[in-house]
């Protein structure tokens, strides 16, 4: 089973959320957009902007915690900067 870390952006608040799932990231974003998460229901719609794939759940958990840490937030911002300025994102 694969595990994923993903960044999604609220198209309402422009806040970026870091999440972890064992589902395809696009499927998970659809769940958020359909109101299947309490946190995200008032912030939808969301756009998938980035994801990473892991074979080990422990590695995915560690990476999620990293992106939510102080230094990890800087790395997340750097990744987003590159994606924005290259015109690319994980969903298209």
UniProtKB/TrEMBL annotation:
Pfam families: GIY-YIG (PF01541). Residues 1-77 form the GIY-YIG domain. This is Excinuclease ABC subunit C. PROSITE patterns: GIY_YIG (PS50164). InterPro entries: GIY-YIG_endonuc, GIY-YIG_endonuc_sf.
């Amino acid at each position: 089973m694969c595990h994923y870390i993903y960044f999604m952006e609220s198209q309402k608040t422009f806040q970026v959320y870091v999440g972890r799932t064992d589902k395809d990231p696009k499927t998970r974003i659809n769940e958020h957009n359909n109101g299947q998460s309490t946190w995200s229901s008032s912030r939808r719609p969301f756009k998938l902007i980035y994801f990473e794939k892991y074979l080990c759940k422990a590695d995915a958990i560690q990476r999620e915690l990293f992106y939510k840490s102080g230094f990890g937030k800087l790395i997340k911002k750097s990744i987003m900067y590159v994606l924005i300025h290259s015109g690319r994102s994980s969903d298209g």
